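Field guide to reading this record: the first block holds the primary sequence, the second block holds the structure written as discrete tokens, and the final block holds curator observations. Each block starts with its own label. This record concerns LysE family translocator, catalogued under organism Colwellia demingiae.

BLOCK 1 — SEQUENCE
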Amino acid sequence: MSLLFAMFSFSLVMSISPGPVNMVILSSGANYGVRKTFAFVSGGTIGFTTLLLFIGLGFYKIIDLYPLLLKYLAIAGSLFIVYMGYLIASSKPSLGVKEQKLPTFIQGFLLQWLNPKAWIASMAGVSLFSDIENNKVFLTFLFIYFLVCYLSLFSWSVLGDKVTILLNNQLRLQLFNQLMGGLLIVTAFFLLYSQFN
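BLOCK 2 — STRUCTURE
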């Protein structure tokens, strides 16, 4: 029982804590609502769970052999996060019918695979909750993480949707988008800086 609690706690802390994916979801929830953000939430959840499975099946051994691979991934991921931040910051606020591009399932999936935070969380989770002699431990962790991640990311979309009460005019919504996009870009540079120091 304590192992299950540890798996749940680890999954919750890693999923609910602010990061690039959560910032995009918060902004999308505020701009488009929960329902239209759900595809991105699903992409982020499935993308992370697939990454966790990929690393759990042994890809971390390749990273041990080629540590520069993680640095190249951090560069590519940071550039993608900057791109997503630019899209959010430059999006035009619309309080009526929204015809702008919604964050997609594919973007959510890719953002997890290019997110250094997701790689670190996956490698830490695999090292903590995988047992060579018992695959059931890792599969249980994978299942728990999937559920917790879905609920955590979904809660960010609900929070974004509820914050629209404060963002009830175009100027406030535009400032919010610029703030979220700017924070995402700063996060990308911080993640990149932390990989090289």
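BLOCK 3 — OBSERVATIONS
Residues 20-56+63-195 form one domain.
The longest helix spans residues 34-65.
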